[in-house]
Amino acid sequence: MRKDFARYGAKRFAVTALAAALLLVFGSSAAAQGTFRPNVVGKSGVVASAHSLASEAGLQILRDGGNAIDAAVAVMAALNVVEPNASGIAGNGCLTIFWKPDNQVKELLMTGAAPFKMPTDGLSPEERDGGILAGVTPGNYGGWIEALDKYGTKSLSEVLQPALRYAEYGFSISQSLSSVIESYRPILELNPTTAKIWLKDGKAPKAGSIIVQTDLANTFKKLCEAERAALAKGYGRSVGLKAAYDCFYTGDIAREIVGFYKENGGLFTMEDLASYRPEWVDPVWTNYRGYDVYSTPSTSRGGIELVMALNMIEAYDVKKMGLNSAEELHLVAEIMKIVKSDVYQYVADPKFVDIPLAGLVSKEYAAKRRSLIDPGKAIAFPEPGRPSGYQKAGLSADESSSSVYVKAGDPAYETSAGCTTSFSIVDRFGNAVGGTVTLGDYWGTKVVVGNTGIIFNNGTRDGSTAGKYPKNVNYPQPGKRGLLNNSPTIVLKDGKLVMVFGTPGGEGIGATQFQLLMNVVDFGMGMQEAIESPRFILGAKPDFYVPGAAVSWTIENRVSPAVIEKLTAMGHSIKVSSAFTSSVGGMQGVLVDQETGWIFGGGDPRRGGYAVGY
User: Fold this and answer.
1) DSSP designation for 390
2) Contact assessment for residue 421 and residue 436, using Cβ atoms and an 8 Å cutoff
3) What are φ and ψ of residue 517, in 5° steps?
4) What is the rounded (10 degree) CA torsion for 114, 117, 122, 124?
């Protein structure tokens, strides 16, 4: 099998290009058919996710008396079944939780690390990207159990029931999933365990086909059986959940995972699985125009990007500029460039590096970096600043200290757009959960692990790590976590829940969430309107690790041609897409009316998002 995966790199680039083209096609079809989502309203609960069946799974749990945390696990498990290319039990992710009983926002990192046996310099970019040698320890499942144990009320068996039914009895796949399977067929067919599920008779299933995932259903059943066995002995709920946790990370499923990797020349061991723990951390935070915004810290960069961007833009009257005016769009783009120049040089696994986080998210540092903006001209992608000088109030920054960044001329690579999914939930108790979970790229490592039905996140890949830049803080190391961009976000005002939102979108996640929050706070939009509003993302060649990189836009064509012409005259390089393109993400969000208590959910038509409520 390892010999088969030596061919992985030769097929990767053509497949990635085809997948990018398909994303544009999916977005175009939504616009052509006028597929706009309704403004979903609920009083007792709302669930918004990337697939209607996953949203219904979460709503079922809420109706059955569960809370937002119970529903979140049901949604994540269901997405594993119905959106298998984007996330799963063996993926990575983050949960941002507003817990009403103590009016606090909690952050749960569900992020696994590179295997301890990964050679630091012995794997090629293609080997780190996909195949039997790629991947990071499964993080999501441990997070499911941890969240349920700390804040949930239901058993694992109860919340997995919707997903188990979808896996055991099948579901009808969409045109988009059928097309994604076909686009990745040259890679998926390299592994017999993957092809067995997704390429019947060597072909991608057609839209409307019923797909049954017996192996994944059996994995879910084993986890539920471990929990029930503990409960049958008279143990309490937490012990039952712990038994289900151990089944995956140290028990039967762990042994099956490790046996498969050992048999096929892979790197994962029992030590990798047994050493993993989900982690509760403090969210990053800022106050933006009276709203308290909470999002994810490292090992994600998206939340840090969002907070830094809000700190920079609050000095401007964007409402006066006008939504999607050349002045406003130019400002948003320039801020994102400046923010990325810092994040890509300082943010990595905090267990391996000291991140100057307090400096990065400080208002004082934002004011310093804001001075780089030229209101009438696009600046070059800048060098990073010196946030360490802003770690404590009263300290001055040394802007002349030696550079730590990667210089142009160092090895370069193209970053992947990635694939992820997101969901947002508010329950009748006033709790909220935002989750963004991922396999990294589409289909992660592309390897279904033996008879488990699961696929690992390919978080060792270039993009999640600075694999070509040995001096960068995010250079891959054994046991080190790669850098996600997942950043589910919760917003409060005067201690009351206002909204929860998140998006997939690879490199564009920070910019997409930045624009959505401004749409609501600065331009007074409702959630669905804010989601559907035209937006843009930035890309860079060779990438955002290199100061001076060529930065370009992808912007939806609903923005005025005159505005785009003006932006081009300012020096921006702009590619105009279809009216609705999934290349700019697939936002899901929930907004709470502070006066009435009614809950409004939004799903993004760009990627089939669907909100439900009751």
Assistant:
1) G
2) yes
3) -65, -40
4) -40
